Amino acid sequence: MSDSAIEAALAPIRSASADRAFVVAQLGQSLDGRIALPSGESRWINREAALDHVHRLRAAVDAVVVGVGTAIADDPLLNVRRVSGRSPARVVIDPSGKLSGKAKCLLAGDGAARFLVRETDGIAPEGVEVVAVAKVDGRLPPRAIVAALFERGLRKLLIEGGAHTVSAFVEAGVVDRLHVLVAPVILGAGKPGLTLAPVARLADARRPATRVHVLGDGDVLFDCDLRVPG
């Protein structure tokens, strides 16, 4: 992907107004819409250029957000390593307090703030702030999570994973931009990417305005503006 294409994909995030939260979500998947094999193996469906792009996204936001399932399964650092830039705050949505204090994303070292989103306040690892959000219908509402993080100065958010978390934020209508990184590989079966409420007619399907960028090693970025129909 050329420098101009990179800037085009990142410009809406960098230029977003500070008056409200701006949310970008990303998914990496196969041609047939899978983010992992049936065994759970997912490293690496996407190739180097796609991984670089995820790190550019991290460097462009105030906070990167993942669900507790992803935090436990992948134990990601959630920092910026592959490109130059500042590592964002790290946020884990952990409704029931399952995440170990030894999780890599909660460890200090790069100065990034760390947050756990839970239903209630509680004990947290040293230096980690708990963000209490009330459940609605048994779940932590994405819109309330975005509002709570915005109040803490985290205006630009990257919803990085997993698929359940990304789908929940898209379904709630709080995602401004969706970046889907598609690798030229067919898995045949496995965990799907976006899973949203079904629509009755094709006319009701989301058709966002989309720009397509071919990355240098063959993966393709679909940059979808969920606020503008195509």
Structural commentary:
With 230 residues, this protein is an alpha/beta fold. It has a domain of 133 residues: Dihydrofolate Reductase, subunit A. The protein contains 5 helices and 11 strands, in the order αββαβαβββαβαββββ. The mean pLDDT is 94.
**Fourth-tier CATH superfamily name of the domain at 63-195:** Dihydrofolate Reductase, subunit A
Q: Which structural class do the helices and strands define?
A: alpha/beta
Could you list the spans in which at least 5 consecutive residues all have pLDDT below 50?
none
Identify the strand order in the major beta sheet: 6-5-4-3-7-1-8-11-10
Sheet with most strands:
9 strands, mixed
Rg, Cα atoms, Å: 17 Å
- Please count the beta strands (DSSP E, at least 2 residues each): 11
What is the count of helical runs? 5
Order of helices and strands: HEEHEHEEEHEHEEEE
Beta-strand content estimate: 25-35%
Could you list some keywords that capture this structure?
single chain; 230 residues; alpha/beta; Dihydrofolate Reductase, subunit A; 9-stranded mixed beta sheet; two-stranded antiparallel sheet; 5 helices; 27% strand; globular
